[in-house]
Design brief:
The chain is an all-alpha fold and about 290 residues long. It folds into two domains: about 1-75, Helix Hairpins (Orthogonal Bundle), CATH 1.10.287.70; about 85-294, Cytochrome c oxidase, subunit III, four-helix bundle (Four Helix Bundle (Hemerythrin (Met), subunit A)), CATH 1.20.120.80. It is about 70% helix and about 0% strand. The radius of gyration is 23 Å and the shape is globular. The chain starts with 20 loop residues before the first helix and ends with a helix. Residues about 1-5 have low confidence and may be disordered.
């Protein structure tokens, strides 16, 4: 049952009424996973399930978020809800830290322990042709016995990864400028810098898509290119997805700013998106150093 409120008064702690949105969202995600799983296994009907699920999911999320925005703008979210949102976003970002930590751990373990061990004297009888060399240290090294992985070349730090690093770092600066402008009550300035931030994020995604095309078509670097290929695309691919999600978050925040939402005193929706974006920036710095330079 929703919290009882009087006109013009914020409830002690707003509790929304029962909603069908969580179940409807789960239905959409079911078709997404079903379709993706079938499509990658050669069933053409899987793509229709995937796209149907994405469309369903997007429609439900739009309605759900619109309801939450309406609740916020009509004064139903007080200080305690704001605190709940802050804790929720903090734990969500912590879960993302653990998510990327697992992939960084896989990269570290493979490079520092697994590959040298497989190339040791104890394994020479089983795999006499194995090269215990990490591919980023030796161009074209597949680190595979019997030619099970096609020769490939790695992606160096210049120019695209370095360009993307500059784009993300610059976007963090423009986002911070927008935040300070919002606190100062300069809405027009905030909106302008937010659009710059969104553009920088979209450009990053475009540059990474070009980098992937270059890796597949010219370097023969693929997800199937041994442990190097799998860790490279898992780390950079998931990060790119997070950049896309963060860019969409900032886009919606910008559109809300243009509608007059948020005040210098109450704008956690803006702050939550900014926290996420700065987290994405920090993860990229780790990726840039470990994946492209080392």
């Amino acid at each position: 049952m929703s919290a009882a409120t009087h006109s013009g008064h914020t409830p002690y702690y707003f509790v929304p009424p029962p909603s069908a949105y969580p179940v409807l969202t789960a239905i959409g995600l079911f078709f997404v996973i079903l379709g993706a799983g079938q499509w990658v296994n050669g069933h053409e009907w899987g793509k229709f399930s995937l796209f149907f699920g994405l469309a369903w999911w997007a429609a439900v999320i739009f309605k759900w978020f619109s309801q939450a925005i309406h609740e916020s703008e009509t004064g139903l979210y007080g200080k305690r809800i704001d605190t709940s949102f802050r804790w929720s976003m903090s734990w969500f970002i912590f879960s993302e830290v653990m998510f990327f930590g697992a992939f960084f751990g896989a990269l570290f373990w493979s490079r520092i322990y697994s590959v040298p061990t497989l190339g040791s004297l104890d394994n020479q009888i089983l795999w006499p042709d194995f090269k215990a060399v990490w591919p980023s240290l030796q161009a074209g090294a597949t680190a595979a016995p019997g030619g099970t992985v096609e020769p490939f070349h790695t992606v160096g730090p210049w120019p695209l990864p370095t360009l993307n690093t500059a784009l993300l770092l610059t976007s963090g600066v423009t986002l911070t400028i927008a935040h300070h402008a919002l606190i100062a009550g300069k809405r027009a300035t905030t909106i302008a810098w937010m659009w710059v931030t969104v553009l920088l994020g979209a450009t990053f995604v475009g540059v990474q898509a070009f980098e992937y095309h270059h890796a597949y078509t010219e370097l023969n670097l693929k997800l199937s290119s041994g442990i190097f290929g799998s860790t490279f695309f898992m780390l950079t691919g998931f990060h790119g997805f997070h950049v896309l999600v963060g860019m969409l978050m900032l886009l919606f925040i910008t559109l809300r700013l243009m509608k007059g939402h948020f005040t210098p005193q109450r704008h956690f929706g803006f702050e939550g998106a900014a926290w996420y974006w700065h987290f994405v920036d920090v993860v990229w710095l780790g990726l840039y150093a470990v994946v492209y330079w080392m």
